[in-house]
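Appendix B, Record 12. Input sequence as logged:
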Amino acid sequence: MLHPPAYDNLKPAVAKMLAGSDRELTARFAALSNHYLFEACFARPATGHDKGGVEARGKGVRWQHLVPIPQGPSLDAISRQLLQRLDAEAHEKRDKTGRMVSERFAEEKSFLLPLPQHCFEPARAKPVTVTRRSLVQLEGGYYSVWCRWAGLTITALVGVDNITLVGPDGRVTHGRVHFGERSIDYRHYMPELAKKPQALRQVADELLPRMSGTYQRVWKQLVDEHGPKQGARAFAQVLKAVVEHGETAVARRLELALAAGEPLLLAAHPPPPPSVLINADALPHALRDVQVATAAAADFDALLRGAA
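Logged structural output:
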């Protein structure tokens, strides 16, 4: 028979200690328990036998796997390395009967409930209001969102390392910043930058690294050909196309234009396809026999001569 684990009254889980082993859970831990359908049991204070050998086992795990202290570029990388090492050991170590740890876990797993289709979102949800500058203030830090969300109340999911801002038509994720710092992604302001070339010049060094290399090459070519001021005006037209058609579609057209040496603005805003000819049967009877000749430049010269 499987027994639920005994938690040691950790603050993220326990809001208030009641009589005996009863606890008032925090909202997020209660949501976690309801999501995965497990019973939250807690050890009684100053009662060591409630936890059995968990203290000694925890010390053993620390000495086996956390000494020396693991190092890596991020907590995620350290966790992946640790899990890989544990999975390898599970297929090597055997108990007294010769069974591997992985075999025993597979047997125990058959008694567990299946996991929900969607993982639990551990972040704390909080409603926030977007300023007219398309910024959200959270715990002293400022985070940018799409400029079309300005003035709206959206949901912030506050995690340990990231802040996810969920709006009416998508979500934006930032790494958490310290008090007074800002995390600004100028792609969120593209519709406004497409109208303000001089503002675009001021933020180009921060905007372009977040876009693909195609746009960086387009910016360089436009500035080389027209100078910084006029180049920014031309690139603003490129951003206007990005707003209308999407970054990927416009980048594909620009890449072809760069390779063929064709005009970049024409590639960003290609002319519309020719209109479809209308079947004569769909026209009113009075218009079916009307013939409209195609104009030529010489026709306008003749008109000018006549006017003189």
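The radius of gyration is 32 Å.
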